[in-house]
Write a structure and sequence with these properties.
77% of the residues lie in helices and 0% in strands. It is mainly α. It has one domain (17-208). Helix 2 packs across helix 10. The longest helix has 25 residues, at 62-86. It is globular. It starts with a helix and ends with a helix.
């Protein structure tokens, strides 16, 4: 824990830049290690998302926020498997669903981040975009035991602010990549969605360490 605190202090004091070439190269290495698993899980996550959003859409805005929060433990699976690979450990398909073993804190993180980001988008869009970028490392911080749901969000925001331009650049590249994936009749998302998660996992490790 002392090492984590020292690293955070260094990041907040000196700032940092992320190497986008290295991040995407390493993210690709993670994805191709298990392309079938990542793609099948993406299909499952997409199906669950459609069901959840259709179910909760009867309550405008609030229903969407709740659906997003309930799905966050599922989406956590992308990071959990990516971290297992980056750590050199073995993994199996059911590891994608282990976010539900930490359901309450992950749900609360998803609920708070979705609610405040939605408010941000209503406030002339820009605040919502900022929060999406600032909280990009919130879920990875929680999954790696570096705080509860609120401290993970606040720590992510503080650290991202010190390297905002490079993290914003990463977020924009991921958005463009996923838009391109969606334009390929949605099939491209089977690649771009898990690759995006792998890229965030690699960036997280580059910034915060193991």
């Amino acid at each position: 824990m002392d090492g984590d605190e020292s690293r955070i202090e260094t990041l907040l004091r000196d700032g940092y830049r992320i190497d986008l070439n290295r991040i995407f190269s390493e993210a690709w290495r993670v994805f191709v290690a298990n392309p079938g698993g990542f793609s099948v899980f993406t299909l499952i996550a997409a199906a669950a998302s459609v069901v959840a959003w259709l179910t909760f859409s009867i309550v405008p805005v609030l229903g969407t926020i709740l659906a997003g929060a309930l799905l966050t433990p599922l989406y956590a699976g992308f990071f959990l498997v990516a971290f297992r690979f980056l750590d050199g450990g073995s993994y199996e398909f059911m590891d994608f669903f282990k976010g539900y073993e930490q359901f309450t804190p992950i749900f609360l993180l998803g609920l708070i981040s979705n609610a405040l980001t939605t408010v941000g988008y209503f406030l002339l869009i820009v605040p919502g975009i900022y929060l999406n970028v600032a909280w990009i490392f919130g879920l990875p911080l929680l999954l790696t035991g570096r705080g509860d749901f609120w401290s993970a969000l606040t720590m992510s925001m503080k650290v991202v602010n010190r390297g905002f331009i490079s993290v914003f650049g990463l977020a924009m590249l991921l958005m463009i990549m996923n838009v391109a994936g969606a334009m390929l009749l949605g099939v491209g998302l089977l690649l771009t969605v898990p690759l995006s998660a792998c890229a965030i996992a690699v960036a997280y490790r580059d910034v915060f360490g193991s």
